[in-house]
Design goal:
eight-stranded mixed sheet, binds flavin-adenine dinucleotide
Length: 525
Amino acid sequence: MAGISAAIELLDNNKRVLILERDIEEKFGGLAKKSFGGILFSGTPQQKRAGIKDSATLLYEDWMRYGEFTDRNCLGAKWAKFYSDHSISIIYNWLIDKNVKFLPVVNWPERGMYVKGNSVPRWHITWGTGYDLSNQVVKYLLNHKNKENLEIKFQHKVESVVIENKKAVGVEVLDESTKQRVSITAKNIVIASGGITGGDLELVKKNWHPNLGTPPDTLLNGSHPYADGTIHLDLEQKGIHSTHLNRQWHYAAGIPTPNPEKGKFRDGLSLVPPRSAIWVDSTGKRFQPPLVGYTDTLFFVENILKTKHQYSWSVMNWKIAIKELAVSGSEYMTAFRNKNKLTMIKDVLFGNKTLINRLIKESDHFVVANTVDELVKKMNQQGNTDAVDLETLKRDLQNYDDEIDRGKSYFNDEQLRRLINFRLYSGDKIRTSKFQKILDPKAGPLVAVKQYILSRKSLGGIPTNLNSQVINKDGEVISGLYAVGESAGFGGGGIHGARSLEGTFLGSCILTGRVAGANISGIKF
Ligand SMILES: Cc1cc2nc3c(=O)[nH]c(=O)nc-3n(C[C@H](O)[C@H](O)[C@H](O)COP(=O)(O)OP(=O)(O)OC[C@H]3O[C@@H](n4cnc5c(N)ncnc54)[C@H](O)[C@@H]3O)c2cc1C
C-alpha cells in the first residue's frame, strides 16, 4: 500500500515509475490485501453523523499518551502530529476518490486498560475489507491516465541500495524467475518493502523488547513472508540505522492458519477476542486483572508472556462465539470481503454461525464440549498435556457467572464493569452480548480456543524526516532515498511509540507514500 501510494502520487505528477516487487503478480497489493481494512481517521462524516466529537488535537494527545512518547520532537512524534492533522485531507479524501467506501459504524478498539487509548471511536472499516481497499487502489494505479509512465517487474528482489557520497543512485536486484542479477539506476528510490516481522522470526526474536521478557517457544507469523529485513540490514551496513525495531505490534489471540498456503506463506490467523469470553492462562486460571478484548493489545501480550507456557485460552460458549468472535483479515470475513450486505446484517443480528462452524471444523485449536469436565479433558488432549486444571477453570467460570447472577448494580468484576461501558456505545452494543453467563446451558456448547502470540507489525524501521527522506546515523539526509510504510516504522522510524491506536498502519502507508511521491515531484502538502 505504501509503495503503490507513492507510485500513484508520482504518476499524478507526470513522473516515470518502476516498481520492483518480489512477489508474484496475483499477490500485488502486499499485506493490505489480506488486511481487515480498518483505518484510523479523525473528523470523518461517519463520526459526525454518529455525533462523535473528535479533533486533530484530541487524536494527537491520545497518540502521544498511548504511544508513551517522552519526546515530542522526535521524528516519530512529528509524523504522528502530521497524521493527526492530515488524516482527512491526505488519506481519507484520497481513498474516497479511489472509490473506497467505509461502513457507517465507526469502531472503537484500543480504548486502553491502564493507559487511556482512543478517547472516541475512530476505526473506519472498509466495505469489502482490505481486499477491496487494495483492489480499488491497485485498479486506480493500473488504469492511471499516465500509465505509460509505469512499469512493474514482479519476482524482482531488491537486495541492496547503492549509495555514493550520501546519494542513492541505484539498486542491485535479483530476478528470482531467471536467477539473473541486474543493477538498476534511478534518480530517486523509494523503499516500501514492509517490516521485519514476517519473513524471519529469528530476526523478530533478536529484536525482542525487554518489557516482553523472553520470546515464546511458539510464535506465529501473521505478516508478509518477504518482510525479512533485507533492506533494513543492507542499509545498516551503509550507516543508516533503523530505530525502535524492538517495538513490534504482536497480537495475543493467534491460531495456526488451518490451511496454510503452500510454502508456509503465513502461518497464523489473528482472532478478534470476544469481550464476553474469559481469558485464562495455560493452567485454566483467569488472568487478573481480566484481559478484555478491544482494550490494550500490548497489555495482553505482556501479561500472557509472563506466564509459564506463554500461550492462553479464551473460554466462551456458542452464543458468545457467534456474536463476538471474528478473524482480523479479509480471508475469513467473507460477507464483509464480498460486500454481501444481507449476509452481513444477518451475521450481526443472528450471529456468524458460518465463521464459527468453519473455524471449529478447520482448526484443531478450537475445542467444543457440553460440560466443563469434558471441555478440560479436550483442552488437555489438544496439547497432549495435563496443564489445564479442572477445578481452577470451573471455579473461575462459576465465580464469573455468579457475579452476573447478582445483577448489574453489583458488578465489581473489572471485565463486567468494562462490558457495561462497551454496551453504552451503540457501535459496540450490537456486537457485545448482554452479560452472557458462560455456563448457561441454553447458550452452549462451551467453546475454548488455544491462542498463541502472533507476530504482525514492525513499529520501528528506517528513520525518515517529514518528507519521507531517509536519514543516516549522523542525522543527514541521503539524497534521492525515501522510505515509506512499514519499512519506515510507518514514518520517522517509529510513528507509534509503544502502542498503536489501531488502523494507523494502513493510514500511515498512504500518508508516507504520498508524501514521498509529492516530495520527489517538488510538491509540499
Ligand atoms: C491479516 C492482516 C490484517 C491487518 N489489518 C489491518 C487493519 O485493519 N488496519 C491497519 O491499519 N493495518 C492492518 N494490517 C497491517 C497492514 O496491512 C500493513 O501494515 C500494511 O499493509 C503494510 O504495508 P506496506 O506497504 O508498508 O508493506 P507490505 O504490504 O508488507 O508490502 C511490502 C511489499 O514489498 C515487497 N518486498 C519485500 N521485500 C522486498 C524486496 N527485497 N525486494 C522487492 N520487493 C520486496 C513485498 O513482496 C510486498 O509486496 C493488517 C495486516 C494483516 C496481515
